[in-house]
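Support request from a user on the community tier.

User writes: "When I paste my structure tokens into the form, the page sometimes reloads and wipes my input. The last time it worked, I copied everything first. Here is what I submitted, just in case something in the input itself triggers the reload:"
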């Protein structure tokens, strides 16, 4: 796809940050056996990746606003446009040497995500989309799956960890969903969950208490691949911090199950 100038800047920044993270990821694998573990090292890798992305995006578009997982929000002199960036989504996977993490970069224009890039650097899979131009992975156009039967569908989610208060809701979701479907995956990187829905690998994805920077780029990917994305309840995915996404065939049945609490 011949992307816009903005999309090219986003892809270039994702590749540069990806090179830095892949180098650090090799080091993380070496640090696993130590008693201290790779925790501090990973947080430095995360900050370094965000600094690279910010440097590239800000150099190209100095007037745009910025929202990054590590550095927070900086309003731009252009109030209509904002970058939304997670430099390392799937941090826990990265920390444990699991090669399933991604860089996620979105461009918001007047409150709508118009471009998105999700780069799985460990597998060299670059997912990207622009409003009106389709969704892509490397050189190939991607589309959501055509599965319309719940018993053949595989869904992804993020199961709450630690003391997150959404655990009871998740347990109820699973109790309703598991008997109806072919399986649920919890791979630990929300951006890739959405990219996989866009690529037809998963048939749907849902999660509660999710951050905007984890899912922003995935929104335009799923929509441009022909899928649907909505908040679980209420108005706005970012506002409610909840999301349900799926191919158009199965969306109604799947969303009904997730919403019927
Ligand atoms: C997390 C991952 C995970 C999701 C969590 C996110 P992080 O992002 O995307 O899959 O379940 O809700 O916070 O912390 O690795 O950037």
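"...and here is what came back when it finally went through:"
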């Amino acid at each position: 796809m011949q992307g816009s100038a903005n999309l090219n800047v986003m892809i270039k920044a994702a590749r540069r940050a990806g090179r830095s993270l892949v180098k650090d990821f090799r080091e993380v694998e070496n640090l696993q056996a130590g008693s201290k573990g790779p925790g501090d090292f990973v947080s430095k890798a995360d900050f370094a990746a965000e600094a690279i992305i910010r440097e590239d995006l800000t150099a190209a578009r100095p007037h745009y606003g910025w929202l990054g997982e590590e550095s927070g929000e900086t309003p731009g002199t252009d109030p209509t446009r904002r970058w939304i960036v997670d430099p390392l989504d799937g941090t826990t996977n990265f920390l444990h040497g699991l090669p399933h993490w991604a860089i996620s970069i979105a461009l918001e224009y007047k409150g709508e995500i118009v471009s998105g890039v999700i780069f799985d650097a460990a597998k060299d899979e670059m997912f990207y989309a622009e409003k009106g131009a389709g969704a892509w992975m490397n050189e190939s156009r991607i589309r959501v799956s055509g599965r319309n039967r719940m018993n053949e569908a595989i869904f992804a989610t993020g199961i709450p960890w630690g003391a997150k208060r959404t655990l009871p809701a998740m347990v109820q979701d699973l109790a309703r969903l598991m008997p109806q479907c072919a399986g649920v995956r919890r791979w630990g990187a929300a951006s890739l969950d959405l990219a996989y829905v866009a690529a037809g690998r998963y048939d749907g994805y849902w999660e509660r208490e999710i951050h905007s920077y984890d899912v922003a780029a995935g929104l335009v990917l799923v929509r441009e691949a022909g899928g649907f994305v909505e908040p679980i309840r209420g108005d706005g995915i970012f506002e409610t911090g909840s999301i349900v996404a799926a191919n158009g065939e199965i969306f109604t049945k799947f969303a009904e199950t997730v919403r019927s609490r």
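Agent notes: The reload is a front-end session timeout and is unrelated to the input. The pocket of D-MYO-inositol-1-phosphate is lined by residues 86, 89-92, 158, 188-190, 207, 210-211, 214 (CB under 6 Å). The first strand starts at residue 65 and ends at 68. Escalated to web team.
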